[in-house]
Amino acid sequence: MGNSRNSTKGIAAEIAKGTFRPHTALTNMALSYYQNSANYFAKSLFPICPVDLSSDNYYVFDKEDLLRDSWERKPAYGKVAPAVVAEHTETYNCKVDQMIMGIDQIRQTDLQRRQGPATRDPRVQRTKTIAEQANIHQDVLFARGFFKSGVWSDEYTGIDDTSVSGKQFIKFSNDNSDPIKFFDEKATEMQEKTGRRPNRIGLGANVYTALKNHPGILDRVKYGGSTANPASVTLNVLSQLFSMERVVVMQSIMNKANMGTEAEMGFIGDPNAILLAYATNNPSIDEPSAGYIFTWDMLGDGQLLPILSYLGENGTHSEFVEGLMASDMKKTADDLAMFFKDAV
User: Could you list the pLDDT tens digit for every one of the 344 residues in the chain?
Assistant: First the structure.
């Protein structure tokens, strides 16, 4: 099966050869599920940057030259020396990931006769499942690549003691901490070093709980409440208090156990960590961003998550629904993010 058309390598090979011809496209059925990021954090924090090639170079310009004042007074009858902006290239490489679900056509005939219209088309259920797991898969890749210790150079560790030094900060589960002042100071620090002020915060689930109940934050909002509408701390409130464009909670969950074993449910992202970052709203290889989700349009039809259906071999009376996704989550600016572990 290693090189068959039902394997990742086989699909990639057929795409490369131009012979990949599934029977039916179902992408529109899955689009709403895949794009709905209410419970997922990857696409909410770092933008998707569509690319035409599976692998290519992108330019990185040195901030030291970009942020220097290179204007000079023009000498009489002469000209100034050309300004130099150093640059180098990095490479993204989108790999093809695939998920396939089968449909037993003989059994499905019996189910269609017995049950109501909602179960008439099993492809709808398979399509929804594949799209939902595509979101989970992206969050898993994001958590592994960006939301963990050792990824970002600017990393801090939370401690219970109020006597902090170096790369330490007071845990937000400690009432003596001041989250609003803390994030404001860190945002100003990044702005001074890079010229970009961070605009997004990713909060672990436990951190969000601690911030909602933090006395320093509750004190800021309590006077805006009434008996009928008591004051509460929401993501919108936090984004305003922290002066952020977007505050995202890592609240997506997954079963981390293997098939056939007891379920092991848990948050995908570290529930006790925080990521403070700058990310552009206009994804382009020319726009700076702490990270990008480079995504390859592998079939050339503008779909970043093609969902397709094809028949099984003759005599099997089976049908398959498959999803394809090719992305590379790339750290594109190490100094445009700060990571805080053990925040609670």
Answer: 455 555 667 667 766 665 555 555 565 556 555 656 667 889 889 998 888 899 988 877 777 767 778 888 889 999 988 887 767 778 899 999 999 999 888 776 665 555 555 555 788 888 888 888 898 999 999 999 999 999 999 999 999 988 889 999 999 999 999 999 999 999 999 999 999 999 999 999 999 999 999 999 988 887 665 555 566 788 999 999 999 999 999 988 888 888 889 988 999 999 999 999 999 988 876 788 999 999 998 887 778 888 888 888 888 888 898 999 999 999 999 999 999 999 99
What is the pTM assigned to this prediction?
0.80
Strand partners, 322: 100, 308
